[in-house]
Every structure is written in structure tokens, then in C-alpha cells.
Amino acid sequence: MIKETEKYVKDFHMGDSSGHDYAHIERVRKMALTIGREEQADLLIVEMAALLHDTVDDKLTDEVTAWTKLENFFDQIALAEDKRDAIKHILKYMSFKGGKNAGKLESLEGKVVQDADRLDAIGAIGIARTFMYAGKFGDIMYDPLIPPRDLQQADYREKTHAINHFYEKLLKLKDLMNTETGRAIAAERHEFMEQFVAQFKKEWQ
Predict the structure, then answer these.
(1) What does the angle CA 124 – CA 125 – CA 127 come to, to the nearest 5 degrees?
(2) Mean pLDDT of all residues in 43-72
(3) Paired residues of 161 in beta bridges
(4) Cβ 29 vs Cβ 51: under 8 Å
(5) Burial class, 60, CB count within 10 angstroms (exposed 0-12 / middle 13-18 / buried 19+)
(6) Residue 96 — pLDDT band, cuts 50, 70, 90?
């Protein structure tokens, strides 16, 4: 089942240049399993959700078509209904979406996978992925005249610049971690990002 899921996910992420490639999926899977063991979560659900978490992300694909394809894939691998429902709940609510999904993720397994995904969005790799994503979708590096937005009010898909992404999302993630393991890892990565943004702005001037 895991091998079939790997193939499905590799096909989906092939050729990605937005920072959501299969290497990202592998890092999230490894981190999710590490946290999941610490938190005594159901590791099959954790691993499957970590592998599949971007396959229904509307940043990367048509959401309606993606959910239909995922249901068909679950039928193909004969995934039990309870496992299927648990994974679908995670995939539906784990994304940040400008903070609009806050509090909707209920399961321990979901919180584990969400922490793993958020950890890959911060620190050194998170910084690299931010600029990959900005370049892919036509955002500039920085414009000091464009302030960060309140994403509870604004459309988080609107054009902005890469440095705003740190203030609008990435620097908030440390305080949104669900697990003790996630919080411990996030603290170091958060500090590194703060140092990077300060150095970036110093050099910009």
C-alpha cells in the first residue's frame, strides 16, 4: 500500500519547481514518522497522509478533480473506510490557508502531519522554498513599499513579495505547532529565519 502510494505521489509531483516536489514529501514523511512515534500516533495514517498531503492542494492542482482521483486511488489499493476517512480529514484541514483552517484539524495524526509540513516551511529549507515558490508564481523578492497583509481579511493568493510571506505566515508557525516535538524543532528554525530576514533587510539597504 505504501509503495503504491509512493508511485502515485511521485507521478503527481514530477517536474515541480515550486518547492512542493517529491523531496519535500520525503522530508515531511520522515519528520511526521519521527513526531508520530514520539506522540504514539497511528503511523499508517501518519505516513499515508504525509505522502498524499499536497495531492489535493489547490495551489498545485484543480481541487475537485484531485479529490476524485484520490478516491479512485483509495479504491484501487482497497484502503479501509476508517483509514480513508481519517486521511481525508487530515488533507482537508491541515493547510494554513491564511489562518482560516485554525482549529479544524481534530486528530492526533493530523496534528503530527501538520507539524511536519510546517517544519519544512521554516528554517533554512523553508527560506529556500519560499523563494522557489515566489519565482514559480511570479512574485518579486521584496518591495519595502508593500506591507504584509492580514490574511484573515485579504486574499492570500494575491500578488505580493517573498519577504512578506515570512511575516504573513512563516514567522507565525512556531507558535502554531501542535506537539512538544514540533515546538522544540521549530524554535531553532524560527530563530534562523529571524536572523535571515534581518540580514536580508540590512543588505537591501
Answers:
(1) 65
(2) 95
(3) 140
(4) yes
(5) middle
(6) confident
Nearest 5°: the CA angle 164, 125, 123 is 65
Q: How many CB atoms lie within 10 A of CB 117?
A: 23
* pLDDT tens-digit series, residues 100-122: 566 789 899 999 999 999 999 99
Please choose, from the candidates 121, 141, 123, 120, the residue with its C-alpha nearest in 3D space to the C-alpha of residue 131. 141
Please report the sign of the dihedral spanned by the C-alpha atoms of residue 111, residue 116, residue 118, residue 122: positive
Q: Who contacts 19 (Cβ-Cβ below 8 Å, separation ≥6)?
A: 128, 129, 130, 132, 133, 136
User: Radius of gyration (Cα) for the chain, nearest Å?
Assistant: 17
Question: At how many degrees (to 10) do helices 22-39 and 180-204 cross?
Answer: 140
Q: How many CB atoms lie within 10 A of CB 1?
A: 12
- Could you tell me how many residues make up the chain? 205
Contacts of 85 (CB under 8 A, 6+ apart): none
Alpha helices in the chain (DSSP H): 2-13, 22-39, 43-52, 63-76, 81-93, 108-119, 123-136, 162-168, 180-204
pLDDT at 52: 98
**What is the average per-residue pLDDT within 134-143?**
94
Record the cell numbers describing residue 153, joined without a space: 481579511
At residue 34, the pLDDT reads 97
Type of residue at 86: A
